[in-house]
Amino acid sequence: MKKIMSVLLAVLFCAAALAACKTNDDPKPAQSTSGGNKETQTTQSGDGLPDDLDFKGTKLSIAIRDKYTEYYLGEEGGDLIWAAVYKANQVVDERLHITREYVKTSESSVDHVNKVVTDILSNESTYDLVLVDQFYGCAKALDGAFANIKDEQYSKYLDLEKDYWYSDYMSNLTLSEDTLYFLGGDASPTIISWTSCTFFNWDLYDSYYGDPNALFRLVDNGGWTIDKLAQYSKEVYKDLDDSKTINENDQVGFTVSTGQSAVFAAQCAGMTFSKRDGDGNMELDVVNSKNQSIFEKIYNLYNATEGVYAYDYRTISDDLANKMFADGKALFMNEYFLRSWSEFTRNMNDAYAIIPRPKLDESQKDYISVMQDPLMLYTIPISLDMSKADAVSAFLEAQGIENHKTVFPAIYDTALKIKFVSDKVDSEVASHMVDLIYSSMTSDFAVINGFYLNSIADTVGHLVERKENTFVSSMQSILDGAQQKLEEMKLNYRA
């Protein structure tokens, strides 16, 4: 074990080598070769960005939602992750001779996006860069407030072929190969933080089944499925308050809020809403036998499985699942990587561990991990003072480079694999689970752009929440409207 720990710690000093292209065995997401031709220069640092860049104190104003700002501001002398963010920012600013100013708007993702778009289109913007939420931000590309980053005037120093840019993910943010309005990669640490996973209570599992490592072996053998989750839920359920009705006072196998969580659960089970045709054009693909089967499985898990406590997040706090899990009243909970360093896990008495979200069944080839909406993406306002364009592109590239060296290892290699892992959990196994989850990151165009496409994916969550087992008819009723919206998107993109 000491040897393993030593190796992992040593890895922190060579993070660039760790983050190779995504394969089933490599934690780094696969990257496409999108991006234009770039001026190649030999530099002392060897990262492709010229070492002699000097923007003479240029100030870059960055609009940001007033939430999760620690991922971008960091804190001097702060906790592991925030200290890494702060250090990376210092290196970037000193390397480029720039200063940065974060302009906080609103905690609401909708209000934030609406404000920055209004400011940009009314020519009242002083923003040089904008950070927007995936869900609301991407739909606003059609308002004409954001620049096409692939235009040469905005991309002088960007090299989107580098593995610190998630090219495959970014391709699902846009309709056409020659347009790109949002950047996602190591420059934005919220992407990995909002990657989905399943938490399980180590001690509770041990008390019922013994040897919690057996669950890890089940995952590795491809047997971690929705049916298995349902089985565990039935076996550990206890009606502790003798109310004859499952509630937050009971011991449950699985606790989850309804609504959007069902959408992500369905995606992890293989449900897709869009695909590209042979010519690379995006099209909707929703009503089919595969998606119907997945919906039935998710519907029954949430609404017809003993020991599963699915509650309405609008009437009961969305944090209830976290509380039940932290109190030792739930064996499983669907969450995201960032909960590993959240307050509720730090204060837990029981040990916990992380595994992927379950497959539909054992015939599903790979586990699937999706990213939650609050993750933030960089975009360039159309109102940018073009005298700053080179500084902006250099800043984005340098931030990706330095976060890849400093912030990514702090989150991925130290926080997820070492620091916030229980002493009861084998660190080598925990590390393998994190790799397995991260190697399966994916996204869906129709989910990302759901705010514009009649929230077609959210219909899954609404049906589960309302206990309406009408997937085909409900989807067909909105499909024509969503298809019309997609055609409008295509026209706007061409324009």
Produce a short descriptive summary.
The protein is α/β, with parallel strands linked by helices. Helices cover 41% and strands 12% of the residues.
Walk me through this protein's architecture.
By secondary structure, this protein is α/β, with parallel strands linked by helices. The chain folds into two domains: 29-193 and 373-420, D-Maltodextrin-Binding Protein, domain 2, CATH 3.40.190; 196-370 and 440-479, D-Maltodextrin-Binding Protein, domain 2, CATH 3.40.190. It is built from 21 helices and 13 strands. It has helices at residues 2-11, 15-18, 70-73, 80-96, 109-121, 134-139, 167-171, 190-193, 202-209, 213-220, 226-236, 260-268, 289-303, 320-326, 343-346, 389-405, 407-419, 427-438, 445-448, 458-466, 471-494, and strands spanning 58-64, 98-104, 129-133, 196-201, 252-257, 274-276, 282-284, 308-311, 330-336, 352-355, 369-370, 376-379, 441-442. A five-stranded mixed sheet has the order 8-5-9-4-10, with helices on both faces. A four-stranded mixed sheet has the order 2-1-3-12. Strand 6 and strand 7 (282-284) form a beta hairpin. Helix 17 packs across helix 18. The longest helix has 24 residues, at 471-494. The protein is globular and about 70 Å long. The termini are far apart.
